[in-house]
Structures
1.
Amino acid sequence: MSTVRDLSFFSKPLLAIESSCDETSAAVLVGRDIRSNVIASQIELHSKWGGVVPEAASRAHVEAIVPVVREALEIGGMALSDIGGIAITNRPGLVGALSVGVTAAKALAMSANIPFLGVHHLEGHLCSIFAEHEHFPLEHVALVVSGGHTELVHVQGPGQYHLIGSTIDDAAGEAFDKGARLLGLGYPGGLAIQQAAKSGNPKRYKLPVGLRGETTDFSFSGLKTAMLRLTEVEGDLINISDAAASLQEAIVSVLTKRTFLAIEETGVRALSLVGGVAANVSLRERLYAEAQKRGIAFAVPAFSLCTDNAAMIGLAGSWRLERGERSDFDLDALPNADIWDANTV
Ligand code: KG4
Ligand code: ZN
């Protein structure tokens, strides 16, 4: 069985850039080793609107991109002349936000006369486990949970992705974010819900978990509506901690149930948890406990590699650059792209 250790990574120092949504990030990697991973977050900017405003995000990326790249090189102990290649998120995401990173990557590649490669954002999340889990099998099931995605992917190997299940409406992260907004906990909501839930009773409020029966798909729109109704019915009497704990429990339990159904269906003995929602401690603990019980290998990235960051884009771009993949200067920023769009065969 091949593991992460068997994969060949780019032999020269690599610069990676990510700007698909509301984080401007740059990283320097040497093989699987992350030398720097600088993230300029726009949370403060967007929190006043309660969500990401695309136009404002693009402008903030324009301001941040050069200082962030410069800082990543400095912390990584490299000059641009030491860098042998660039990995850049070019899909999917906010098109204006993506364009800032793609343009910067092209300019840097041109001036340094080095190759660059457009990377699928979700492949970045999928490869975020490569940094630390060298004995993890290359074939595994991945639960990808973020602000925009809830997907179960059968990873047969790097660049071989098959969708097992996905959300038919909203993403798990959106359910966290919407719940937090309704409870007045601010934006983004995942961490706020997790913190409020610590002292709460998860059984206090009964919330729906979407699709019934044996399925590997998800639906979170009913949960969002139920949270709205709960806050309307309870009004000021609502117990914020109990509501947060109940919401978190609803999301974690349905993600766990469907994930292990996917494990049973595929017969695969390894599971990874990736994406921004993978930072949720309750979800990490629940999946870990269930995996242990069943003898399934389990990998989850460090917290800093869960939410959007350039290091994960570097990890995904690295093995691809090493096998000779290159982008041309006509590389476009694409708002939509499914994960199988990243398949190599
Ligand atoms: O991967 P990510 O940074 O951006 C996308 O690609 O969408 O994910 C952001 C999402 C947000 O919905 C945020 O609320 C959620 O990840 N998140 C969490 C936690 N930290 C971030 N959700 C639950 N618990 C957390 N601790
Ligand atoms: Zn993401």
2.
Amino acid sequence: MDTAARPLTSARPATPLSGVFRVPGDKSISHRALMFGALAIGETRITGLLTGEDVLRTAAAMRALGAEVTREPDGIWRVAGRGIGGLMEPAEVLDMGNSGTAARLLCGILASHDLFAVMTGDASLRRRPMRRVIDPLTATGARFITREGGRLPLAIEGARDALPLDYRVPVPSAQVKSAVLLAGLNARGITRVEEPEATRDHSENMLRHFGAAVRVETIGAGRIIELQGQPELLAADVVVPGDPSSAAFPLVAALLVPGSTLKIQGVGLNPLRTGLFTTLAEMGAAVVTLNQRVAGGEPVGDLLVTAGPLRAVDVPAERAPSMIDEYPVLAVAAACATGTTRLFGLKELRVKESDRLTALAALLTVNGAKVEIAGDDMTIHGTGTPPSGGGLVASHMDHRIAMPALVLGMVTREPVSVDDGSFIDTSFPGFVELMNAAGAAIRNALP
Ligand code: S3P
């Protein structure tokens, strides 16, 4: 994304946060809805699609591959699919912007399509590791050529007659699992993926929703997923729930700003995504789930949040897959809590949109919090009073560094600034407006 930098400053609001809101659609589900829609026969209608930059990149890529993707005036997206194996060779380089999910899942799709494609991304994505998908996908018969270190841009020559994979994912990653499953859609026979720790299962859910045969077996903390290759995927309507990873920001803000009460409606509550809610409950947070229901095959509910004191917590490494994107905002909550919080097993944070572990420690330190990193673990020393604030946070092209910094500024004595909030639009377009409507004081400002 080559937009101009957007410096932002967040100050303590004059009043408590309040109101009833919805957050934008789930990013993971939105990418998948467009991809599965493009691989299905018929017209898929998607309600609640996230229109953040990341997902718009996926929409553009699916168009470049021959699917018809349109947004109707009523906000519903329609995808006229081409069927498995039916994608066309793209005439242009596929630019996945800031989105690791879009790039990695698309590698899976392209690996089993007999076509040539070139993929790139922005400076952040071009730094991120792609070998984690390229290594397994090469065994389909596809050929990848990448920059040094397995980085984008890359060229891919998809397999003419793809072999099904049998792969044990070495790091907990829903992106890698999904890339292997997507490649398996156009391979003859059974594709088998083993994950030592269960990660978000939106691909598995959506495969079933579109008519594929998927078998899932739970083994301890992990899972084995088997997909029967070359199914006929049939277009299916998708209702995208609100993104729990986006809901996390107003939710933590409302917990921290004294006197606040906020209701966030229609939030996805897939149990493989709700580690943050479990952790906040252990910290003493008052979050009540109302109106639980199933929408579009995923559990959904409304969250009612009331401000109150938080206490420190130990978060075990096993919980990381279910809250991997929520550590930055959890760390902000921990910096305002009473006592020492220890977060274990954060290795994967180093390969997100930024080295999020380092960026997060800097975010907190520059605002007066006491933080240590030892190996892959982080310790945050809370005093029960928010840190002083007043820092300028380097966002490193990472939406999930910019947003928690602005949440922190809502409770610190001095305002908190970020050098560039433009990347917030990748996952949470309208974040500043929503927070300000709830009572926050975030403004465009040169730091
Ligand atoms: C995602 C999986 C996670 C997560 C990312 C979205 C997905 O990444 O951090 O925001 O949609 O599959 P990893 O697979 O790298 O853990």
